[in-house]
User: What shape does this take?
Amino acid sequence: MRGAHSAAGPSLWRASVRLSGPELDDGLLLALEVEAEAVAAFADERDEADEPRAWRLDLYFREPVDEARIRALLADAGAGERLAGSVAVTEVPPADWVAAASAQRGPVSAGRFFVHGAADRARVPAGAVPIELEAGLAFGSGEHESTRGCLLALDWLARRRRPERVLDVGTGSGILAIAAAGLWPCRVVAVDNDPVAVLVARENARRNGVASRVSVHLAEGYRSLFVARRAPYHLVLANILADPLVAMARDLRDHLAPGGIAVLAGLLDIQAGRVERAHTLLGLRPVRRMRLGRWTTLLLRKPRGRRGSVARRR
Ligand SMILES: C[S@@+](CC[C@H](N)C(=O)[O-])C[C@H]1O[C@@H](n2cnc3c(N)ncnc32)[C@H](O)[C@@H]1O
Assistant: This one.
C-alpha cells in the first residue's frame, strides 16, 4: 500500500459535505471515487415518504485536503451547486487495527483455496485457487476459523452453485470477495465500514487480478447505493459478528435473490441458534451448519417464489 503509515495503520483525512436535493446517482459517486480513496453516502434528511431530501458524503483521502480542493472536486463532478454549508475536514487517527495482528504469517489451505503472501507465490499447489494477500491492516488472512469456515463454505458451494452477483459484507482484507471471484465469473460488491479495510481490499483485489469484477466500497452494512443498485444477489457473504448479523437479518433477506444463498460467520457455536432463528423467522431456510473450533458458519437459502421485499436492480 502507498501512503503514510504508522505502526498502527495509515493516516486518513475525511472531508464531510452536505449535498442538497434527493438525487445521488452512481455517476457522481464514481466521479468522486476517482479522486478520493473511499466515499460513503448517507441520507442526511428524509421526507414523510422516507425519501432522501439531502445527503451527507464522507470522502476519505490519504493526504490532507482543504475546503478549496473539495469544492473544486464537487464542481468538476457537477455537484458544486448542491453543496450546502461548509466542508468539515478531520484527520482519522491511525487506530490499533484488529488486523495488524492478523498479518499473513504463512500459507493457509481451506478446501481448494490456498491463501498466501507474496513470498509463497511459488508454493501454490497445482489445481488450487490462490489468494495472495499483503501482510494486512485489515482482518482476513485466512487463519481465523470464521474466515476458514467461509472459505470451506465457498468450496462446498462451488460444486453446486454458479452465482452471478455476490455481495461481501464486512470484507476486511477482501479475502472472501477475491475467493468468490476466483471460483466463478461473477461480479462482487464488497463493503466494509472501515475505510482502511476498503483500501486494503482494493489493493488485494488488484493484486489478485480481479479488480475489474470486485468493487469495494465504504458502507455501514447494506446502507450503500452501490449495494442497493446491484441487488438482488445470488450469494451474500457476511463474516461479521452475531449481534450485527441479527440486526441486519432483514436487510440480508431483502437483498438476496429468490433461491439465493447466504453464508454467515463470525459467530460462536453457542450463538448459532439465535442467529439462525433471526433469519428463519424472516422466511430463510437453513441449508447447512459448518463448525471449526468454537466457530460456526451458517448457510441459509431464500426460498424461490415467495413474495418479499427483494431490493431491485435499477
Ligand atoms: C471478522 S472481519 C471479516 C473479514 C473477512 N470478510 C474475513 O472473512 O476474514 C469483519 C469485518 O467487517 C467489518 N464490519 C464490521 N461491522 C460492519 C458493518 N456494520 N458494516 C460493514 N462492515 C463491517 C469490519 O471492519 C471487519 O473488516
Summary: The mean pLDDT is 86. The longest strand covers residues 256-268.
